[in-house]
UniProtKB/TrEMBL annotation, chain A:
Residues 34-236 form the FIST domain. Residues 237-381 form the FIST C-domain domain. This is Small ligand-binding sensory domain FIST. Transmembrane segments: none annotated.
UniProtKB/TrEMBL annotation, chain B:
InterPro entries: A/G_cyclase, A/G_cyclase_CS, Cyclic_nucleotide_synthase, Nucleotide_cyclase. It is found in: Membrane. GO terms for molecular function: adenylate cyclase activity; nucleotide binding. It comes from Algoriphagus boseongensis. This is Class 3 adenylate cyclase. The keyword Magnesium does not apply. PANTHER family: GUANYLATE CYCLASE, GUANYLYL CYCLASE. Keywords: Coiled coil, Lyase, Membrane, Nucleotide-binding, Transmembrane, Transmembrane helix. It holds the Pfam family Guanylate_cyc. GO terms for cellular component: membrane. It comes from the Bacteria.
Length: 400, 441
């Protein structure tokens, strides 16, 4: 039997009914008689337990994984008002899904990553072909803080088969870092990282989409502490960025938050521009008192070379990247595409003139698409698992 | 300096020149991009506000105001990306206590707790028709502080819904500061959006009020039309049998119909010409009307179809348009009642010395054809020899007597006492066997 994938969504405000509707639509759309596995995501304004009850009404016995998301993407729908839910059902003889989870993320990201890596290693078979990793982005403390993906993935990677295709995303309920949830089968949890192991007669490939280009010289981080960058090229970080942007009268410092994006080039320093070589790093907030930028991730340590990235996207960049990905999949039959897009890239938050997820919908046309809006995205850049900001990660799953 | 060094210096100068040019261009481009991005976000947010207004304009004119406000509060919450949104209406019309009736709060907001609260608006604030926007700043007065406490959210907007220059209610929307965005919570353009939504609500309210007036007018007019229709139908029923009116309404025409056996009844006032000579036309009509009204009552009650009156002659028939087997018996019963009524009036008037009528009544049973002829002033009529013979029975009778033919006699002899009068010559009909009929016993 050819693998069947069914995708459904809903944006009802009643969580139970939304779950039920999305699951029903997914089942109908995919003409699925036997559901083997389901990816389930619900918006940050939903009650995840009621949502799960609704899904279970339609898929009582099927294994499930997912959680809270900032928004939903499917073949025909994009939404980020907080009430969107999405359900993707798989029915396959060739592709197998297995879920492992690890808690305590807020206590120690590195430890959680290591533990999860060990669990994956313990049960991974020779036919493990890919990995999806989702985690709780919000630490739930006052003031709110993010769980860092850098130590999480760095400590997980040694336990994974070398070069194993892997994509991931950090769950985010909303832009206020409200509590978000992870779901594995009938459990609703927080502060967990979950890994979906994909095995069988299949292949998984991914690409990153951000459309950003470097627009400055290489800049060197000269002083940082965790996610806080104090100095760039020996100058206070804010002053340096202000200088690059034409001075204080041009751009309000408060606008740096969620706008200032640095790119780390993992490829040839002076080589031809290659989008997939750049890992983006986004400023989460500004600390005006200390003239510092607070980043999403803590990996821009002293000595790291970055470039200021411009991100006035042009819609056509998506098509080219996706065509390249399709070429990589030649010889196999893609059955599913999955898009993890940064919540900040959603049009109302990015200020960009077009919705990049719409371009993805058009470009993957014919391959069932689902996905969610995330806090942080994860993909391999330069062969290394790399948390990314202001990026879309698209992956294809194909039968051989 | 060697030539090579000079060239290198020149090259470095060129590199620096282009590097600075590039930097200037990048700076300009980036600052524009940042400002553009910021404006775009505002434009998108405002566009979402317009969507709320557009949704309002699509409201079904028949929808309940309750449903409208409930959906609107949800729409404001979702579209404007608020944590909570509500429409407050006066608890009692004309008071300054407002209830958060339509409250849409999601996530961690204390929706149920806040829903129970009554917001007391100071009269000065109410009269001013002002709005409140609260963000990071400290409250300016006690009411702002009260709002923040009661509504349990730091960043909020509280603005009046103005309808016909009066405050219909208030909007309340609040959200936590967007931690991952520059936004300060509630922005001034949110007030503009809510004002615009308030304007549409006022328009909708006007429409609903106009619609209510229209509905009342339509209801009144419908009632009038219904009454007029009833009058028309009753008038029609005075002219035509009910079954015939139905056929006429359904098909526009009525086919003549054969009836095998009916009983036709004629009456005539004796000495009408002499009687009428002593009365004015008006008095004469009044007198005839007096008698015919009672005869109408009798025939209607017994289910006999009145055909027409011609001067002092009254013609009716039993057994059509709905056929019935007892037509002759019913017709004789009617004849006796008519005769008794006329006799009773006669006796009363004799005592009073007033003029009175005496009546002759004749009946005959047999086949007739019934229908409507012509296209104006419809009249239902019957034709056939039976009718002519019935008329002869009347003219061959005696005042105060019911004269029936042989065919009627055969149908009623068991029910009534019949006295054979013999074969009596009738005009244009030869000799006819006739009977006087009276109640038995």
């Amino acid at each position: 039997m050819k693998t069947k994938v069914g995708i459904g969504h809903s944006n009802q405000t009643d969580s139970y009914l939304a779950g039920k509707e999305a699951a029903s639509k997914a089942k109908a759309n995919g003409q699925i008689d036997r559901a083997d596995f389901a990816l389930i995501f619900c918006g940050g304004k939903h009650n995840p337990k009621q949502f799960l009850q609704g899904v279970n009404e339609i898929l009582p016995d099927c294994e499930k994984a997912g959680g809270t998301s900032f928004g939903i993407i499917t073949d025909s729908f994009i939404g980020y008002d907080g009430f969107e839910v999405g359900v993707t059902i798989f029915s396959s003889d060739k592709i197998k899904f297995e879920v492992v989870k690890q808690g305590g993320l807020n206590l120690n990201e590195a430890k959680a990553g290591e533990e999860l890596g060990k669990k994956i290693q313990a049960i991974a078979g020779d036919d493990l072909k890919g990995l999806m990793v989702f985690y709780d982005s919000s630490k739930q403390q006052s003031p709110p803080m993010l769980n860092f993906a850098t130590p999480l993935f760095a400590s997980m990677e040694p336990y994974l088969p070398a070069g194993l295709p892997c994509v991931g995303g950090g769950f985010l309920a909303d832009m206020m870092l409200s509590e978000c949830y992870q779901i594995v089968n009938n459990e609703v949890m927080t502060q967990h990282v979950i890994a979906i192991m994909i095995s069988g007669d299949c292949v998984m490939e991914s690409t990153i989409l951000h459309g950003c280009h470097p627009c400055s010289d290489y800049l060197t981080i000269t002083k940082s502490e965790g996610p806080v960058i104090f100095e760039i090229d020996g100058s206070p970080a804010i002053a340096k960025v202000q200088e690059l942007l034409g001075g204080a009268d041009q751009v309000d410092v408060k606008d740096f938050a969620m706008n200032v994006t640095f790119g780390v080039n993992r490829g040839d320093k002076f080589g031809e521009f290659k989008e997939s070589d750049f890992a983006n790093r986004l400023a989460l907030a500004v600390d005006e008192e200390h003239q510092a930028l607070i980043m999403f991730e803590p990996d821009l340590t002293a000595g790291t070379e970055v470039q200021l990235m411009r991100r006035n996207l042009e819609p056509d960049y998506v098509q080219g990247e996706i065509q390249n990905l399709k070429r990589k999949m030649e010889g196999s039959s893609p059955v599913f595409s999955f898009y993890i897009n940064c919540g900040g890239r959603a049009r109302p938050f990015s200020g960009v003139d077009f919705e990049d997820a719409e371009q993805v919908q058009h470009a993957v046309a014919g391959i069932p698409l689902s996905g969610f809006y995330s806090g942080v995205e994860v993909a391999r850049v330069g062969g290394v698992l790399q948390p990314l900001d202001w990026t879309g990660v698209l992956c294809f799953l194909a039968e051989k | 300096m060697s030539s090579l060094e000079e060239k290198l210096e020149q090259a470095q100068k060129e590199i620096n020149y282009y590097k600075n040019r590039l930097k200037d261009l990048t700076t300009t481009c980036m600052s524009l991009e940042y400002r553009n991005s910021d404006l775009s976000k505002d434009v998108i947010q405002m566009a979402e506000g317009l969507k709320v207004i557009a949704e309002l304009q699509n409201v079904d004119a028949n929808s309940e105001l309750d449903v409208l406000f409930d959906n609107l509060a949800e729409s404001i919450n979702v579209r404007l990306k608020m944590d909570v949104a509500s429409i407050l209406l006066p608890e009692v019309q004309g008071t300054l206590n407002f209830r958060l009736k339509y409250l849409k709060g999601f996530g961690t907001y204390n929706t149920e707790g806040v829903r129970e609260k009554i917001i007391e608006v100071p009269s000065a604030f109410f009269e001013s028709k002002n709005s409140v926007i609260l963000n990071q700043d400290e409250p300016h007065d006690e009411f702002e502080k009260y709002l923040r406490d009661q509504l349990e959210i730091h960043h909020l907007i509280f603005s009046p819904i103005i309808h016909n220059r009066e405050i219909l209610g208030y909007f309340f929307a609040g959200r936590r500061p967007q931690l991952l965005q520059k936004g300060k919570g509630v922005l001034p353009y949110h007030l503009n959006i809510l004002d615009a939504i308030g304007g549409v609500i006022s328009t909708v309210q006007n429409q609903l009020e106009r619609q209510a007036v229209l509905e009342r007018l339509v209801e009144e007019r419908t009632k009038e039309l219904k009454e007029e229709k009833e009058i028309s139908e009753n008038l029609l029923l005075n002219i035509l049998p009910y079954e015939t009116t139905q056929e006429l309404k359904a098909k526009g025409t009525v086919k003549a119909k054969d009836y095998n056996l009916v009983t036709v009844l004629f009456t005539d006032f004796k000495n009408f010409t002499q009687f009428s000579a002593g009365l004015s036309s008006k008095d004469l009509v009044e007198q005839i009307d007096f008698y015919y009204r009672e005869i109408d009552q009798i025939t209607s009650r017994l289910g006999i179809e009145k055909i027409k009156t011609i001067g002092d002659s009254y013609m009716c028939v039993a057994g059509l348009p709905v056929e019935r087997e007892d037509h002759a018996v019913i017709a004789v019963r009617a004849a006796l009642e008519i005769r008794d009524f006329v006799d009773q009036v006669k006796q009363e008037r004799q005592k009073e010395g007033r003029p009175y009528f005496e009546i002759r009544i004749g009946l005959n049973s047999g086949p007739v054809v019934a229908g409507i002829v012509g296209i104006k002033k419809f009249a239902y009529d019957i034709w056939g020899d039976t009718v002519n013979v019935a008329s002869r029975m009347e003219s061959s009778g005696e005042a105060g007597k019911i004269n029936i033919s042989e065919s009627t006699f055969q149908l009623v002899q068991e029910e009534f006492s019949c006295h054979y009068r013999g074969e009596i010559p009738a005009k244009n009909a030869g000799n006819i066997r006739m009977y006087f009929v009276e109640p038995k016993g």
